[in-house]
Protein: Stage II sporulation protein M
Amino acid sequence: MREAVFLKRNSERWRSYEEYPTDDPDELTLRFISLTDDLSYARTFYPGSAVLKYLNGLTAQIHRKLYTNRPEDRGRIKTFWIFELPMIYFKARKYLLYAFLVFFVAGLIGALSASKDQTFVRLILGDSYVNTTLENIRKGDPLAIYKSQSQADMFLGITVNNIKVSFAAFVMGVVFSAGTWYMLLQNGIMLGAFQYFFYEKGLLLESVLKIWIHGTLEISAIVVAGAAGMYMGNSVLFPGTFGRLQSFRTGAKTGLKMVIGLVPVFITAGFLESFVTRLTMPVWASLLIIGLSATFVLWYFLIYPWRLFHTDRQIS
Structure:
């Protein structure tokens, strides 16, 4: 659209933000997301224009107000989970897609490599794991490895390890996203090889019904952490109208919030892996847990942010 039309459609709303300031955290969040969307559009179609400079200033003003003394606001935690974090996921939606595609392709590579090379699974998963699992298959309990530790120790170890992996996937994004790509490829190839190993033994369905009880949340969270790393890495590569350092700070802060938001997901996944995966359950129960987990992932990371954003646009 022409710049004049863009101004005509939005100038009244921008003016209202200046003339009617607010301290309400929810309203500030909605205004900030709305302005960043306008700012992104202006950067694309009107680079170097006066409206771009104006939106930069107004967005920065709202941003400062939004984050100054926010810990003292009532309902700060509620605002973070219900408004701020979902809006961040909406802004990072293309990185969520990129991270998913990288992980998915890596999984296919892992499965294909395992099908072509008999030693590949041992190379990826290790001789100890493969030998133990083969012995468990001979005993008639192929996934007995999930029963080998006490539940409490397993829960703590798995949860801490998963959180460490997610933060590593995020932090490694600082190297122009290359480190994050490596982490996603590594984990995706491992998963693909792992699933093919059970497929080859005729145990694919049994492994899916067991592993994805916790894996649905765990794998999804790793993908989101990868998206956070890409978001930070691209803030360095493509700073836009901001200085590179300022862009990096903003990208790092946003990416860190994305990863912090995953901590409850990893805790839940750790609980499921330690206390539920080891149980012998009917097929419907496994499918119910997997289905509920997948529904939560799709709703909170994709559907709800989309609806929240478009509700805000309609109000604006």
About this structure: The chain has two domains: 3-74, 91-315. The radius of gyration is 23 Å.
